[in-house]
Amino acid sequence: MRLCSIASGSSGNCIYAGSDTTSVLVDAGISCKRIEQGLNAIGLSGAEMAAVLVTHEHSDHIRGLGVLARKRGIPIYATRETYEAILACPSLGEIPDGLYHEILPDCPVEIGDLTVDPFSISHDAANPVGYRISHEGHSAAVATDLGVYDTYIVNHLQHLDVLLLEANHDVHMLEVGTYPYYLKQRILGNRGHLSNEMAGQLLCEVLHDDMKQIVLGHLSKENNYPALAYETVCAEVTMGDNPYKSKDFHISVAKRDEICEVIDF
Prior knowledge:
The chain is an alpha/beta fold and 265 residues long. Helix content is 28%, strand content 25%. A hairpin with a 6-residue loop joins β1 (2-7) and β2 (14-18). α8 packs across α9 (226-239). The chain is globular, with a radius of gyration of 17 Å.
């Protein structure tokens, strides 16, 4: 399998995952042009995508979906509530008929030779999900836009090879920053976003000897820095109630506006 972050941040998200024969995108929150450029950089094209797996309807996850659907005719997988919210978004334009495939949390679907397992997440959207994608005993998950995590989330993130995990904000930066009070409360709430500290604590619950790589993603432009996210998560892992140190794993930070390295596993 392979996984590559084409873009990950509060201003736009698009992740590629696939096997030798089946390729999918998780979200299309940047322009179709940038998605194509990112795929081309790793030797692929939009025409080769078997699906776009949509986590939820916020613009930083669907901005390029309309053009991508019209240009490439790629099947769209999302919960019914998410898709209805997508159709109500006038900026996307028309979505061609026949592309939508309904998914349900905790009901895996087969896309080519990939098994896609959607799981519910706590976020202020219609019916949002994260995704675990598996192929021949290997698996990766994309878990962002989590207000909180619980045993249910931890169980869905067990025994992964690769995890792209939200580390959205530094709590102090957010609290003293320029955001209005209501927005600060939204981000800090149970249907908001994971802080750096919470990302590290969640990571402590799912680490295992065979995990290949952790990618920290969906960083806030205003309330975080890549180095701060990295150092905070590493500190939580090293000092946490687990048998590991952060140096035991390859931990990286996804770039906001650039394609990242391709992870093979």
